[in-house]
Fold each of these.
Amino acid sequence: MRLRRARRGLVATIPTASMADIAFLLIVFFMVTTAYSLDRTPMELPETTQQEQTQKGSAIISITQDEVYRFSGGEEDARLVDGIGGLAEAIRSVTAANKLHPFVIKADRRVKYRVIDQVLEQLRSAGAENVTLLSQGEARP
Amino acid sequence: MKIARRTLPAVIPTASMADVAFLLIIFFLVASFYSVTRGIQFSLPKHDEAALTAEPEAAVLIEIAATGALTVDNRQMPLADLKSYLLPKLQRNPTKAVILQTSLDATYQNMTDVFDELRQVGVQNLVIPTTAELEMYGLRRLQ
């Protein structure tokens, strides 16, 4: 008598159940590490080789090439301010609450130093101490 | 005759979950590349008359002209030579004051170029006087 082997059909599967878990884990990682820019004004930042990470929640002073000032206290989106006078007022409102509040100057590289000088003077007279000049990385020669 | 009832297993379709998740990953990846959050940091010193009016030997005075040309301690100097000029001075005195005066008509990039070099050499005591400050102490401002 011929014995008939019962054939167990093995189905080839790739276990994908945990794929979604891994993917969500990565999502959470990127969500936490992504810092949204409060100011999205397009401009050409100066290039520097030395760079440090800015502190989260820093107040942002944005200056475009045509000398339009925008300001953000660090939590809300940047808003237009009325010239250097409006900027000085906005800076004072931040330093009045906390003198150690970090500031970030995001200025176009073609802006005249005259403008930066005025902004630095306003920061200094308002008592701000911690300032970062936002820049983009430059390939080390 | 008895009809056999087919029982349908309860399943949640999760096949596309990973696709959605990877799509979100790519979004956050791209978003994290686009946000610029780096720069050169410095502490704005308080009005420091001592550093500003220091004797010429006590501090290094760097002037940036409107064209971007450098004058270091009243001598013309290309940007590439700044490091080698400052390094021995800083080795002797790590807290040596460096005063950076930029012409008001120079560009912001001219100033950050020099600032970048100074940070690379490790200048700790950097003074960036503003026009108002220079006027206060009766010092001249570059034109």
Note: The CA atoms of residues 90 and 133 of chain A lie 18 Å apart.
Amino acid sequence: MYLNQFLLLSAALFAIGVYGVLARRNGVLVLMSIELILNAVNINLVAFAAFGNQLAGEVFALFVIAVAAAEVGVGLAMILLLYRNRKSIDLTQIDLMRG
Amino acid sequence: MIAALTTPYVAWWALVPLITFAVAGFLLLTVASLVRRLPAVLAPAWTAVAGLGVLLYLVPMWSRVGRDGADSFLAGTVGVDRSSIFVTGILAVAVIAAALISRDYLPREDLPGVELYVLLLMSAAGGVVMASANDLIVLFLGLEILSIAVYVLAALHLRRIESQEAALKYFLLGAFSSAFLLYGIALVYGATGSTNMVRISAFLAQNVLVDDAMLLAGLGLLLVGLGFKVAVVPFHAWTPDVYQGAPTPVVAWMAAGVKAAGFAALMRVFVLTLGTYVSDWRPAFQVIAAATVLAGAVVAVVQTDVKRMLAYSSIVHAGFILVGLQAATDRGNSSVLAYLAVYAFLTVGSFAVVTVVSGTGDASHGLDAYRGMGRRHPALAGVFTVLLLGQAGIPFTGGFVVKLGVLAAAVDGGAYWLAGVAMLAAAVAAFVYLRLLVAMYLEEVPSGTETSGAVPLGALVVAVASAVIVLVVGLVPGPLLDLARDAVPVLVAG
Amino acid sequence: MTAVLLASAGTSSFPVLPALVVTPVLGALLVMVLPRRRPELLKLVAVSTAVVTGAMSFWLLSAFKVGDPGFQFLSETPWMGDLGVSLLFGIDGISLFLVILTGLLFPVALLAIDPGHDARPYYAWMLLLEAGVMGVFGALDLIVFFLCFEVVLVPMYFLIGRWGHGNSARAATKFFLYTMAGSALMLVGILALAFLHADATGADISFDLVAIAEAQSLSTGAARWIFAAFALAFAVKVPIFPLHTWLPDAHTEAPTAGSVILAGVLLKLGTYGFLRFGLYLFPEASHYFAPVFLTLGVVGIVYGAIVATMQADLKRLVAYSSVAHLGFIILGTFALNTEGIEGGLLQMVNHGVSTGALFLLVGMIYERRGTRMIGDLGGLQKSAPVLAGVFMVVMLSSIGLPGLNGFVGEFLVLLGAFNAHRWWAVAAAGGVILAALYLLWAYQRVFHGPAEGDNADMPDLGLREALVLAPLLALIVFMGVYPKPVIERMEPAVDSLVRHVEFHVDGFSEPVSQMGSEIGPLDDSHGEHG
């Protein structure tokens, strides 16, 4: 196994995640795409830690997982709130403010 | 085996501000959930006292760090130096101001209780962590504590659908940018083998990387991630919408507190940690700074909503701060800190006035709402005038003093063109503030507008105090400049 | 400021120059806190503050050491220590009379005109404006100079906007943005100058005008760039020909007091800036760019005169005549010889007095008749002979009639310009003829002819108005007949400035033409005017 393989996997996930955020209209799917990027980060961190023979990366990955959970909690709550008000989670309909 | 476990050294005295904010938040949350009927004044008073306590505690802390030098602890992941104390002070001021503005805002909008104050204290705690992080992991944690609380704060106005839209926008873009930041941290970690800022900077100083592509990619992603937080072009698109939609006291906190913490993080990451790569990131910073001041100023001119105007003007200010930051010198760093301090007062004061003018429903933010204010509310209009002139950087206000500081840093570093662009943008941006002045003084009161209502005390105190401080700094700039000079950040190994 | 310079010039124990700035500020604060029940106190406090300030500025005249080319009444207070900015004040023969002009015009303007409404902020802004202007003329620190130069925009903005006529908000905004954009690059220039100077000399960063100007440590290229940044700011403020478009609007919409101050004092900030911060700091660049400014000055003279001829609004006519007069000042300044600069300096004072008086008179006519349109007026001489007489004298001084103040300045400017650049002087002389044309024509249409309708029973000057105009008239005559006291105080400073320029310009061609020997040295020519 080479470090490069992990980095490529991570880069691919990152790219898919970014594409998802930019292209998806559904709020939940955008949230999932962000999660994808975070997991790409985790792969990177763990791979670097494993190949560098140290712990910091793995610890960091645990933090990232915890924070991601908190973020999703808040994000889903917001999407839910908006759904109650507008009966839709289509992000292109968020257009009350223009300048 | 338990005896063999050694806990890392903790400088508890340096953690007091962080602990105060966090514990004050938790306590408030606990008490509010246990006691059915809390007096309305308790939560804002509690928050303001917590902020004031932190502010007072910073005084002995400042002299202690001056005496003993900067320190780092918790296995070298958290540091305390005078720059972190300085930024903590700005955060404390912003907390106090936001709490005072909210005191009358929440009852007026008929919004429930204490959540705003709890979240405010939490996000301040996050900001303190960011400002004193010595490790990229800790920096990220602080950023998330700060941000998640602010996402919820932005959504707090339950009856304004704009508030929820703004919050969702802010959340999605914020989470997106955090992910970029994380990816950047991961790449820097991969390139240097550490997440500790001290070790990264030592590593980069001692080794020449044969292939620095990964580091440069990480550096770029870090810039994107933090650029979103401080709202510089081209990562600024969320700012006007979020400022317009979010509850106005929350905007005051976002503009003053979040920006200060964000720039503190930028300074620690780029100037301190990645200082050896300054020739690689400086051109990017310069281009971003020029684009930010120009785009912010030009777009601000065509706005009709005052909150959006102030949003774009905050973008211009962010550009100005970058003008000082890109110098990457002690002069530049202290000019950035001074700018952040004065900017905090300018914005909390301005948004205090905006809160008052917006009226019940937090809805009237058009220029119409400001017409004839010079006659209806002479005192409030006078205070707003000082704050606007300060934002425009008119001489003898604090705004000019700090603009002079960042320009001097840029010119000292040879970036003449950048300083010139920034000054031209400032002249364009002045038009925005003039439009408000024209509306307040030179246009008649539209018929049918109710004449003066009472100005709520909390917002008035914030606005007047800010205006006074802005004027005092403009006339006697020495003390602030000395503080900022002494607050130049340093990284110390634990 | 080096200790040597301080010692040689001698410090006066009382910091009179800071007092000139602080007194109006205190007056403004006092005006703001006066009790609401006593509105009559407002004007009393404002006028007496301005009179006290004016008295202090006149005291300078007596205490000023004649024959000393250096700075006097120096005072220094450290301000922004880290950046090397200090509140450094001092005046020499160049700034002395501008300070006095300011001290004279403000009480006159305050006394002559009452604001129609909102008296409290009006007086406060006027006094703050005076403080700012005094700061500009007294400052010897580049940053302090810039601060005062910029800060006068705010009071003037409010004065035009709130107490002006017509579309005053637009005129005020235009004025503010024009001048602010113009001076934007000057701040960068100042910073660049100070840092380059510090690098070259190894000294601490400082914005001390004298130290930087005497060291001349910049490379030619850098100095030219920075001079351009300065010149843009001054050119907008003067205003020099293509940048003048804010001036007629601002003048027309401004209240009378605003016009008086704008024409009398504020426009001098630019011309004074050229002398003190253009020529002194950048002698080589000034010499290099001089042809540009000479040309623009002449264009301004002719253009201002022609456009003034076509104005239907009396106030606009006077405004355009200002453009022409300021062209003269620029012409004299960039002749770069003693006669030209001295003439330009005299013209600054003359223009302040006579154009200030003209705006006052136009304001008085407007107050009585409610119109400034030349077509609506006529025959006023019959109904208001005293006003007509005063108008006549002031107008002749503006034209440059021998025996009145305008002549001395204009003559010196033309003399200096002729010695340096003959054809420019010839073209400028044409402007003098045009000035006579449009002013006399306007006078004829307004004051002669049959008086009809309201023109027939227009009241003449009241006592207060006469009192206000009297000192201006006295100055017009006095300076025309006996300019020696003024010139002998200006000359040493102007001489040393010219020598400074000559010294620092490689191959400076002493602009003595064939005519030079015939006209002789300037000292002799004093007698001719005197």
Note: The beta strands of chain C are 72-80, 85-91.
